[in-house]
Design brief:
Structural class: alpha+beta
Strand order of the largest sheet: 6-7-5-8
Helix content: 25-40%
Number of strands: 30
Radius of gyration: 35 Å
Strand content: 15-25%
Distance between the termini: 76 Å
Largest sheet: 4 strands, mixed
Length: 681
RNA sequence: GCCGGAAUGGCGGAACCGGUAGACGCAGCGGACUCAAAAUCCGCCGAUCGCAAGGUCAUGAGAGUUCGAGUCUCUCUUCCGGCACCA
């Protein structure tokens, strides 16, 4: 609230120019995120701990584009005005055959007076789609205003249309229509019989490549950059244009007409206007006994909340009942969490000590909004001196996948009865393919596919039931093992059983291990090689946060240990020690217990992390795959230090290889050290 | 529609820089143990031809680059996430 009451941050009360607010006719409050657009964009390059995918999405969302702002002169009631548009394609200026303005544009509003048909169309546009997704899919419609502008360089008359696809909130709320070089404009022109004038020549054979400007007077023959530069220069000389940077990012409208959310601390006074609630009266607290009834913001019906006194003149005034978007709260909670109990400020020195967050984890669905708002808020807090020197809230970001589960239903009259997957048993054919699904009473249910867990589809899994039945280690192991953290996780009861089976096998192996402990033997080279190779890979996967293959590495090590001959207790001892440490972050309880029980030490969590022994990874003889023309034809064993000639002759000696080389000449031999040899014939 | 992803056996997934596709597990099939079942253990397990050795095909579809492509390039299809007032 301190930050919001600051005039630097609050843009103030205003009328949003978009259709949405016109429709509702309510004041909006904005946070000026656009003031940070350049910083938010540039700093993406300094976030090595963020996924490229997320950074790219944010970059496109901020949407910096360099172009030219162009004024098309027109006369209205004897007054000379300019219709301003923004375009990244100033080189196509001579191809403009119409102008299109948003329904909320002043020209559209003006033209609709005295033109009932146009007025109706303008109203229809305002009532229509609001979301960008809907807007992009609606049929492109338009209507002529009867007005026209002059081409800024030729003076030619160009008609002005109202288009339902033009956004008031981007650029100037008006665009120039160049049907020859823009698909959307072409569709529009085709529909309303507007002329198409080609002004760019593409090189023969490649309609996508840029050729040069044509049909554009003195600009003919120029390439893209030259044409844009020249046209911008000439427009500037006439006062009808200049180069401009445009952003797709809009200011953040935080007003919400509902109960839950932080109150906007403003009082509306008939005499003083909109007055911020003074710091000493903050925070504005919400009443806690409202009952939302679905008929709008319950705060409006609360006289005790709405009726107040003007902080400035003391006369009766009304409290703002809009609350803030809940994204406002989620934009800085991580900093606040580091200052518990602090009731005089947003954050204190403890937040300055702990921030930024080392590792942030959240769903990919937050790639744009939440993660961008948080970066914005951290900058505001920096500039307010709350988090000095800090710009980025999250050093490392991991976007985890959602948990999915199967869902089943049965038609019950007009509606569907959703059956929890736990109550469904499956029948399979000889190959294991599911052929039918039934409940315990033998009645068939319909499989509805796999999707996010939800109450409405009754396909949730209660982790507590799982913990009660198998223990937390089993639940943890399954979740880690089933898929990498960044992918979706498909819930499977059988998979949980498998994880449980693995931990029981480990337990049983540990019992046998304890019984024979102390017996000495000679470690076999092969077993050590296998275990240390797996460990090396697991440590690499761990760095990549690919935990599912770390879990599978643990299974591989146990498999290797179980295959060991009884007398190989040296490899056994070492292998078990590696296994328990590698597995301990995934299943801490079992590992902690076994580590002590088998007398490896007191606490597995404080034992050094296992590292592969380079000596164990050395082999005297290695296996190479032999290919002929890239196809696998056999394998050979060669000494570690064998040279190319030796490898080649060994490869040629292989019986199956000879079958494919016989009668042909070897043109080339590719040797990939440690992997394969390919004979090209 | 735009932006960002993904697609590999019956299923979840693995395959590091382009180098043995299917690791590990689930399900399934066969066997051991058992009076029987459960649990456990052993074996098989992409498709196809073959007694076998081995061959052919196969990583959503189609093309390309390469000695060699699941991996790189282009075109396309389907699905998932986001699109600013769901949060």
């Amino acid at each position: 609230q301190t930050v919001l009451a600051n005039e630097q941050v609050i843009e103030g009360r205003g009328w949003r120019t978009g259709a949405l607010v016109e429709k509702r006719e309510i004041p909006m409050y904005f946070l000026k995120i656009t003031a940070y657009a350049e910083d938010l964009l540039k700093s993406l390059d300094e976030l090595p701990g963020w996924p490229e995918q997320v950074k790219l999405m944010q970059k496109n969302w901020i949407g910096k584009s360099e172009g030219v702002r162009i004024g098309f002169p027109y006369e209205l009631n004897g007054e000379r005005k300019n219709l301003w548009v923004f375009t990244t394609r100033a080189d196509t200026l001579f191809g403009a055959t119409f102008m299109a303005v948003a329904a909320e544009h002043p020209i559209a509003v003006h033209a609709s007076q005295g033109n009932p048909k146009l007025k109706e169309f303008v109203e229809e546009c305002k009532r229509g789609a609001v979301m960008e997704a809907e807007l992009a899919q609606i049929e492109k419609k338009g209507m002529a205003t009867g007005l026209s502008v002059a081409h800024p360089l030729t003076g030619e008359k160009i008609p002005i249309w109202v288009g339902n696809y033009v956004l008031m909130s981007y650029g100037e709320g008006a665009v120039m229509g160049v049907p020859a070089h823009d698909e959307r404009d072409l569709e529009f022109a085709g529909k309303y019989g507007l002329p198409v004038k080609q002004v760019i020549q593409h090189p023969a054979g490649d309609p996508t490549a840029y050729g040069m400007v044509i049909n554009s007077g003195k600009y003919d023959g120029l390439n893209y950059q030259q044409a844009v530069d020249e046209i911008a220069k000439d427009l500037k000389a006439k006062g009808l244009g200049e180069k401009q940077t445009q952003w797709r990012l809009r200011d953040w409208g935080i007003s919400r007409q509902r109960y839950w959310g932080t109150p906007v601390p403003i009082v509306h006074c008939p005499a003083c206007g909109d007055v911020p609630v003074p710091d000493e009266q903050l925070p504005v607290l919400l009443p806690e006994d409202v009952v939302p009834d679905g008929t709008g913001n319950p705060l409006n019906k609360r006289a005790s909340y709405v009726e107040t006194k003007c902080p400035s003149c003391g006369r009766p005034a009304k409290r703002e009942t809009d609350t803030m978007d809940t994204f406002v709260d989620s934009s800085w909670y991580f900093a606040r969490f580091a200052s518990p109990g602090q009731d005089k400020a947003m954050v204190d020195e403890r937040a300055r000590y702990w921030m930024p967050v080392d590792q942030y984890i959240g769903g990919i669905e937050h790639a744009i909004l939440h993660l961008l708002y948080s970066r914005f808020f951290t900058r505001v807090m920096r500039d307010e001196g709350l988090l000095p020197g800090m710009a980025e809230p999250f050093t490392n970001l991991l976007t985890q996948g959602m948990v999915l589960a199967e869902s089943y239903y049965r038609d019950a009259g007009s509606r569907r009865e959703w059956i929890n997957p736990a109550d469904v048993s499956l029948e399979r054919d000889a190959k294991g393919k599911i052929v039918s699904a039934k409940t315990a009473d033998g009645r068939e249910v319909v499989y509805d596919g796999i999707g996010t867990m939800s109450k409405s589809k009754n396909n949730g899994v209660d982790p507590q039931a799982l913990i009660d039945k198998y223990g937390a280690d089993t639940a943890r192991f399954f979740i880690i093992f089933a898929s990498p953290p960044t992918s979706t996780l498909e819930w499977s009861d059988e998979g949980v059983e498998g994880s449980y089976r693995f931990l029981r096998r480990l337990w049983a192996y540990a019992a046998r291990f304890a019984a024979r402990k102390g017996r000495k033997g000679t470690p076999t080279k092969g077993a050590r090689f296998e275990i240390h190779s797996v460990l090396k890979q697991a440590n690499y996967d761990l760095q990549k946060l690919q935990f599912n293959t770390v879990a599978s590495a643990c299974m591989k090590i146990l498999n290797a240990l179980e295959r060991l001959p009884e007398e190989d207790s040296a490899a056994d001892e070492e292998g078990m020690s590696i296994l328990l440490r590698l597995l301990s972050p995934i299943t801490p309880h079992v590992c902690h217990h076994l580590w002590r029980e088998l007398e490896f030490g007191e606490d597995v969590m404080s034992a050094p992390w296992p590292e592969p022994d380079p000596a164990a990874l050395e082999l005297d003889e290695i296996e190479l795959v032999v290919q002929v023309n890239g196809k696998l034809r056999g394998s050979i064993r060669v000494p570690k230090q064998a040279d190319k000639a030796a490898i080649e002759s060994l490869a040629m000696a292989n019986a199956n290889v000879q079958k494919f080389v016989a009668g042909q000449s070897v043109k080339k031999v590719v040797v990939v050290p440690g992997r394969l040899v390919n004979l090209v014939v």
